[in-house]
Amino acid sequence: MPAFPRAELEEMIRRFVATNDECGRTGDWEPLARFYAPDAIYSWNNGPKYEFVARGREQIRQWVLGTEMEGLEKWTYPYVRTLIDEQKGEVIGIWRQIAPVKGEDGRPIEIGGTGGSWFRYAGNFQWAWQRDFFDHGCAGAVFLELMQKGQLSQRMQERMKLGPRMPGWVKRSEFDWYATIADREDEKA
Fold this sequence. Notes:
- Helices cover 33% and strands 33% of the residues.
- The relative contact order is 0.18.
- It has helices at 6-26, 57-64, 136-148, 154-162, 177-188, and strands spanning 36-45, 50-55, 79-85, 90-102, 108-123, 126-133, 169-171.
- By secondary structure, the protein is of the alpha+beta class.
- The model has no long low-confidence stretch (mean pLDDT 92).
- The chain is built from 5 helices and 7 strands.
- A 7-stranded mixed beta sheet has the order 3-4-5-6-1-2-7.
- The radius of gyration is 17 Å and the shape is globular.
- It has one domain (6-188): Roll (Nuclear Transport Factor 2, Chain: A).
């Protein structure tokens, strides 16, 4: 028996992606907060030494959709593919990272590599957790290129200097993503 009906997961993705697209148009990412359970975890890897971790809807609202998006307000992150596992209640979403700046060829500059999110559905049109993945090497190269051309926002340049002093950044030794998933799954069993 599936963890959740496929139609419900498809509707969750439809709502989430539509809101994501609207946030990309407006530059205000806060409306996505309603899609996270009160105790949700949102994380991604920040290189060999650090992870980013937000615990709970309010940290997600303040850090993921707030401080981590400062300087990237006009960037867009359109989803290009979603894969649903209704047996586990999980979704993989693949997205692009597109800058509000055009390259020499006239097309918007984009961070190469694969960007995506791995979600666990909690029911009630909310995520239990989200784990993002993207190519840090490509992201760093694009940010450096934009900075050298004077096209990277001042706030993003300031954030790059702060690095691990930003809210939510923790040493990798302080957050084991896979143990966290296993722990949460054991609690439900």
